[in-house]
Amino acid sequence: MAVTVETLEKLERKITLSLPVGAIQSEVETRLKKMARTVKMDGFRPGKVPMNVVSQRYGYSVHYEVMNDKVGEAFALAANEAKLRVAGQPRISEKEGAPEGELTFDAIFEVFPDVKIGDLASAEVEKITADVNDAAIDKTVDILRKQRRTFAQRAHDAAAQDGDRVTVDFEGKMDGEVFAGGKADDFQFILGDGQMLKEFEDATRGMKIGESKTFQLAFPADYHGKDVAGKTADFMVTLKKVEAANLPEVNDALAKTLGIVEGTVEGLRADIKKNLEREVKFRLLARNKQAAMEALLTKAELDLPNASVQSELNRLLEGARAELKQRGVKDADKAPIPEDVFRPQAERRVRLGLVVAELVRANSLQAKPEQIKAHVEELAASYEKPADVMRWYYSDNNRMAEVEGVVIENNVTEFLMGKAKISEKSVSFDELMAQN
Q: What are the φ/ψ torsions at residue 232 (nearest 5 degrees)?
């Protein structure tokens, strides 16, 4: 029988469903009889409860279940018959005035939109490039040296300078009272590493052992300690110990301690270059993929299904609450978070997902098995035991689904880059690494 689909507004549709009362009653009786064989009730042996008692106790809930099941089945059949791609769950309400022996329901729902993608040849994408130069390798070598530095106590009259490890006592007050976290004894930090706020480092720099100094410290408005953020405190710091840093020389011995097989400086630099090039490749891909997706969105026209946006909103809100809980916020699961904060992000995600899906469908850009395998191998290559990492990916369907999603996005990016107007921009290694 042909299904009549009524268009209400944009993506909203309505279907009327009819169910024979007899079929519902028959299914209710079947389920109640099955239940009577095992149900336990006081005063009766199992399986010996009279049907009228079972019906009286469970009839309403079983009838409700059957109605839900039958209406759900009828809606699925009707939507399939009409070749509809339903977004979200339908809102179903019973209609009055049904013919005798029938029940009728209105199912109101949304469908996924038709996505129109314009001429991609007119899309403009800025593609960035970056190289790993000697300066980037030198900087990484310096970081590795710092991680393995040792410290030796300096002379009693030596002034603290950048690179020294200092041990201090400090006390901070607001309105004459010490605040939580504002006092510590024998506190160590590396001067000039940015571990402490600038005013604290400026005050400590140049001090000698046994000296004390008072100073004011203005906490930034975005400081992680909410109780003091944006406020000014009076501090006193006393220097107790100054230790000079000793960095290991860049030689074959350092290369060996870092696990370089060849045990040479050349081998160390080559290993660093390989790792940095891998990181650069992933960062460039992520940055250029984002630019490609933005260009793709400018060429797409579609209506957004409210059900899909709401579902994405719920996911984002759950993620925000989970993050609050991780930070130790009390009753994070009940925290009032306005939906509007995440709505633009939810709408963009839904829009992009629908546009990408259409481009993939229309141009056969699905992830091929060999592409998925190659991507997993690339992800695993930077680890000490790549085979174990690969097994870790292949053992979980969700992880593999994420890999497949990334490969599809890469295919879409490559397809778009082959069509669009590309302007290349070279950025420095430092600039690329500083980007989020």
A: -115, 135
CB-CB contact of 66 with 24 (8 Å): yes
Interatomic CA distance for residues 275 and 384, integer angstroms: 12
Fold of 150-246: Chitinase A; domain 3 (3.10.50)
Question: Which residues face 188 on adjacent strands?
Answer: 167
**Cα–Cα separations (whole angstroms), residue 358 to 29, 113, 332, 348:** 47, 10, 38, 15
d(CA 271, CA 210): 45
Q: What does the mean pLDDT of the chain come to?
A: 90
The CATH code belonging to domain 265-304+337-434 is 1.10.3120
**Fold classified for 5-111:** Alpha-Beta Plaits (3.30.70)
d(CA 216, CA 203): 9
List Cα–Cα distances, 380 to 35, 254, 374, in angstroms. 53, 26, 10
Q: CA 77, CA 18: separation in Å to the nearest integer?
A: 12
CA count, 13 A, side-chain hemisphere, 18? 11
Domain layout of the chain by residue ranges? 5-111, 150-246, 265-304+337-434
- The structure tokens 């593999």 sit at 400
**What residues does 15 pair with on adjacent strands?**
5, 107
**Closest alpha carbon to 126 in 280, 279, 289:** 289
CA proximity to 406, closest of 391, 388, 421, 393: 393
Reported as a single tens digit per residue, the pLDDT across 95-151 is: 887 778 888 899 999 999 999 999 999 999 999 999 999 999 999 999 999 999 999
pTM metric for this prediction: 0.71
Q: Which residue has the tokens 């599809």?
A: 408
